[in-house]
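Hi support team,

I've been running sequence recovery on a batch of backbones for a student project. Most finish fine, but this one hangs at about 90% for roughly twenty minutes before it completes. I'm not sure whether the input is malformed or the queue is just slow. I've pasted the structure tokens below so you can try to reproduce it. Let me know if you need the job ID as well.

Thanks,
M.K.
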């Protein structure tokens, strides 16, 4: 006879989540292969409202000692913190985020999109309307005038890897295993949304006791198909100028050591995407550094001439491929080693569907004695000869550049430092200039390039790995978009550093506007319709939320402030004014942005001609 236990649906969900374990979980990617297991859901972020406070709130309270619940200040940024936690843990653990219905739910849609693009697991549980439709329409309900089954949570469907709406308590018996299958699957990994009808949360059902038995989910490592492996090995053996493009999948698969051994054994240079950066130490002889639009000359020069491009765990987005114009060799072949079939088939690539570590190991065995004669030392030396001076401290009283800020932080960094960022000017400069010394020391969310990820993301990284020295780069524009979790971090006593570069607006997009021939308009605060000039005191604002903060006026003062960060308890904010126009002139490739075909501006006409000329370099395959 099957034993049962009577629980509300919310109690059943929370009890099931608490019993889901993951093998080999650890604090950081570098140690992720260790033995043992932990709960896959490390905790819950919650802002309660009428759609989840009575049902899920009561259930979470009962298990608060084993499944901690944290309260943030914005649903989107709570989810960002959970996603950053997952990224820093190489997808081996994540968090759940719950909201009420209405605006609380829609606030999380942006974060769901970020997780979807970056292939990162997060469990989103927004409250939903009444399944019984008694109080219809309920407060905050979005009504579809032609479809009675629609709620606002349908907005999650295109940005979720698995979506379900719980309209009966017993549906959890199938929905929850499907959710965790998706969250822990290396190919399908991404956000899961379980829209939880608020009346159903409180309804009771007799659940089988066995449903709550601890379950250990295993990190599946997909090995390559022998046919695909043979075809790829044959193509590589015939190559003359191969290059490896390392993406985020190298980190997710804990394959950095394997990549290093493979590259060294075959003498194949490695270029790094934003997500792949730090796969090799910056000073490794085979590390060409950043690739693509925000890339450097060593990687882009080699990639332009390569006849064999081996992408490992990359989705080959436009910043990596220079809008399909970077890999210019007419005879080049692209091979995509990727655990996901969707990504492995992009750009007409020869697919090698496999876990990055397993795939590289088996490809290495299939290559026999094949090696290549490629020298990258001169390229690297020339590159660093150009860009190293950009990060030096300035002379005189000139307004500091973002490059000089990076230099100051780099000089203050230690072996435990993680540099993190997401959007604006800094991602491009950090990709080119930051010298990542070990795997996992560079945390960039550039798949979705989501302004507002930074502060919450820094908080999530620190929760994932408390021993790390987390330094967050953010601009004034991003700070204004999403700063509320600074107060959460202060209340939780989480120690990380935020460097706010104040260039008085959206400097990155202002430069793009000018590069495409546009007049400076509506980006920098000086070029917007405001009656009163902006005079935001970011240091005072951060202090008001509980952070230690300081405004510095020079790179020398920035270095002094950074040197004191270990003395600070809680978040530490350092604000510095920077030049909105300066950027690294070296490296990079063309990036396709739609330039107007018709304009009265001579600058736009000139930019359009460049656009047409660059379009000729694009490849359809």
């Amino acid at each position: 006879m099957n034993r049962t236990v009577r629980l509300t649906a919310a109690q059943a969900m929370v009890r099931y989540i608490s019993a889901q374990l993951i093998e080999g979980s650890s604090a950081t990617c570098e140690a992720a292969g260790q033995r043992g297991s932990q709960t896959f859901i490390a905790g819950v972020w919650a802002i309660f409202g009428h759609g989840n406070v009575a049902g899920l709130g009561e259930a979470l309270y009962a298990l608060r000692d084993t499944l901690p619940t944290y309260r943030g200040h914005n649903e989107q940024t709570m989810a960002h913190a959970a996603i950053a936690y997952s990224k820093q843990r190489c997808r081996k653990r994540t968090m759940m985020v719950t909201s009420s219905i209405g605006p609380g739910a829609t606030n999380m849609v942006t974060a769901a999109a970020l997780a979807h693009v970056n292939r990162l697991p997060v469990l989103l549980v927004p409250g939903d309307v009444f399944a019984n439709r008694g109080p219809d329409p309920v407060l905050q309900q979005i009504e579809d005038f032609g479809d009675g089954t629609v709620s606002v949570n349908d907005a999650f469907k295109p940005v979720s890897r698995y979506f379900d709406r719980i309209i009966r308590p017993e549906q959890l018996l199938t929905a929850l295993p499907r959710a965790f299958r998706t969250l822990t699957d290396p190919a399908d990994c991404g956000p899961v949304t379980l829209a939880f009808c608020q009346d159903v949360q409180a309804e009771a059902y007799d659940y089988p006791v066995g449903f709550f038995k601890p379950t250990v989910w295993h990190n599946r490592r997909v090995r390559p198909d022998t046919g695909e492996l043979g075809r790829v090995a044959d193509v590589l053996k015939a190559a003359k100028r191969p290059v490896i493009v390392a993406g985020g999948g190298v980190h997710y698969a804990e394959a950095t050591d394997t990549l290093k051994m493979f590259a060294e054994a075959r003498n194949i240079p490695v270029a790094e995407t934003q997500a792949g950066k730090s796969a090799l130490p910056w000073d490794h002889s085979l590390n060409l550094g950043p690739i693509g639009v925000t890339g450097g000359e060593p990687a882009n020069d080699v990639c332009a001439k390569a006849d064999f491009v081996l992408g490992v765990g990359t989705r080959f987005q436009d910043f990596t491929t220079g809008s399909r114009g970077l890999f210019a060799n007419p005879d080049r072949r692209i091979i995509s080693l990727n655990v996901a079939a969707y990504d492995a088939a992009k750009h007409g690539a020869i697919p090698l569907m496999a876990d990055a570590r397993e795939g590289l190991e088996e490809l290495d065995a299939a290559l026999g004695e094949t090696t290549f004669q490629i020298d990258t030392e001169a390229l690297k030396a020339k590159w660093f000869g150009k860009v190293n001076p950009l990060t030096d401290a300035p002379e005189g009283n000139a307004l500091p550049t973002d490059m000089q800020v990076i230099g100051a932080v780099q000089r203050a960094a230690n072996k435990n430092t993680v540099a993190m960022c997401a959007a604006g000017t800094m991602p491009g400069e950090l990709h080119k200039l930051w010298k990542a010394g070990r795997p996992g020391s560079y945390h960039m969310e550039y798949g979705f390039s989501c302004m507002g990820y930074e502060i919450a993301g820094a908080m999530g990284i620190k929760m994932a790995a408390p021993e790390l020295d987390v330094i967050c780069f953010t601009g004034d524009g991003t700070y204004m978009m999403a700063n509320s979790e600074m107060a959460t971090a202060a209340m939780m006593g989480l120690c990380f550093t935020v460097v706010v570069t104040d260039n008085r607006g959206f400097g990155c997009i202002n430069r793009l506007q000018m590069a495409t021939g546009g007049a400076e308009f509506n980006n920098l605060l000086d070029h917007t319709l405001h009656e009163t000039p902006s005079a935001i005191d970011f240091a005072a604002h951060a202090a008001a939320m509980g952070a230690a903060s300081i405004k510095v006026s020079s790179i020398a003062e920035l270095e002094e402030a950074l040197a004191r960060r270990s003395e600070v308890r809680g978040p530490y904010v350092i604000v510095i004014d920077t030049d909105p126009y300066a950027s690294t002139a070296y490296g990079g490739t063309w990036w396709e942005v739609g330039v107007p075909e018709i304009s009265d501006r001579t600058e736009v006409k000139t930019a359009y001609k460049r656009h047409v000329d660059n379009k000729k370099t694009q490849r359809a395959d």
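--
Follow-up from support: It reproduced on our side and the slowdown came from queue contention, not your input. The first helix runs from residue 9 to 18. No action needed from you.
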